[in-house]
Amino acid sequence: MNEAKAVIETRGLRRVFKTRKETVEAVAGVDLKVWGGEVFGFLGPNGAGKTTTLRMLSTLLPPSGGEATVAGCDLLRQPQQVRERIGYVGQRGGSDPQVTGRTELVFQGRLYAMPKRAAQDRAAELLRVLELEDCADRPTSTYSGGQRRRLEIGIGLMHGPSLLFLDEPTTGLDPQSRARLWEEVRRLRKGGTTVFLTTHYLEEADALCDRLAIIDHGKIVAEGSPDELKRQVAGDVVVVGVGGDGRDALELFQRQPFVREAGAGDADGTIRLYVERGESAMPAILRLLDGAGLELKTISLTRPSLDDVFLRQTGRSLREVAA
Ligand SMILES: Nc1ncnc2c1ncn2[C@@H]1O[C@H](COP(=O)(O)OP(=O)(O)OP(=O)(O)O)[C@@H](O)[C@H]1O
Ligand SMILES: [Mg+2]
């Protein structure tokens, strides 16, 4: 990875949407640096501002404020040059159902002024590496979700961009297609392409990204490698399931000095306790519940996850927001 060179740099990037009823600040001043050759993730709940940011960085939407350099060019002054250097795959795919995958690819190449022969060769190469040869000459309406997503990535790659934007590349895919797409992203990174993707899957951000930014309400609330971010949530997390609505237990835990923070966990009625050392906290937790006559259903010790990072920064669980 070339640490010295930022492929994307934004300063105070903003976007406001005005409708007749209201004004929405979808992106509220974003400062980002994405290094050459890394897979950078943008993680956040619905409506956080991920797509809006991506659309601005790929010249599809003018910013309301701030500035950015993308692929070595000034976003506001050199949008055409930026467009030539990047690929963009939108959240909702844009392939024509009547047309074959191969035709789509060649057409995209022609849009970028590739000679016909070169476009055909490039399309054939992409169909091979994306393992789409079997369905290459069928209308895309017959493709599976995973095949269609891979074709869309192929469309974004036709002109050989050094930077690829992928908006929620795996949303709605089955686990097998998702794994296949992760492989594809890793292959791109190996070939030196910088990938900027958005996701609202914690596991995806954790497994796939070299670094990520967590965005909420248009603002970046945390940024770093998955490990760095998780280390910010020092200590262990004990997840306790109790009988009833859990409110008594939550209050009880919140009063304990060894509990740094206690909050309702996922929607399943569990409580998450942030403690210094899980091993010594567990017996104390059991004694407390026993003494208060509260029923213990489950107890488990986990290391902090990216969801704990989100929870600490926003007071909400990303899983909860998604549910
Ligand atoms: N054209 C528009 N007009 C008005 N508001 C908009 C417009 N586009 C986006 N917004 C609003 O801006 C905010 C951010 O939207 P955006 O699409 O960037 O979110 P997102 O993080 O991509 O969410 P998702 O995970 O659902 O794709 C939302 O509140 C959305 O309703
Ligand atoms: Mg979006």
Note the main attributes of this structure.
323 residues, alpha/beta, Rossmann fold, Alpha-Beta Plaits, elongated, binds adenosine-5'-triphosphate, binds magnesium ion
CATH class descriptor of the largest domain = Alpha Beta
CATH superfamily (homologous) name of the largest domain: P-loop containing nucleotide triphosphate hydrolases
Q: Which descriptor suits the 3D outline?
A: elongated
For this entry, what is the oligomeric state of its chains? single chain
| Through-space gap between termini | 36 Å
SSE order: EEEHEEHEHHHEHEHEEHEHEEHEHH
Rounded average pLDDT: 90
* Largest sheet report: 6 strands, mixed
Say which molecules are bound, naming each kind only once: adenosine-5'-triphosphate, magnesium ion
Number of domains: 2
Q: Radius of gyration from the CA trace?
A: 23 Å
CATH architectural group of the largest domain: 3-Layer(aba) Sandwich
Structural class: alpha/beta
Poorly predicted runs are: none
Query: In percent, how much strand structure appears in the residues?
Result: 25-35%
- Give the CATH topology of the largest domain: Rossmann fold
What is the helix content? 25-40%
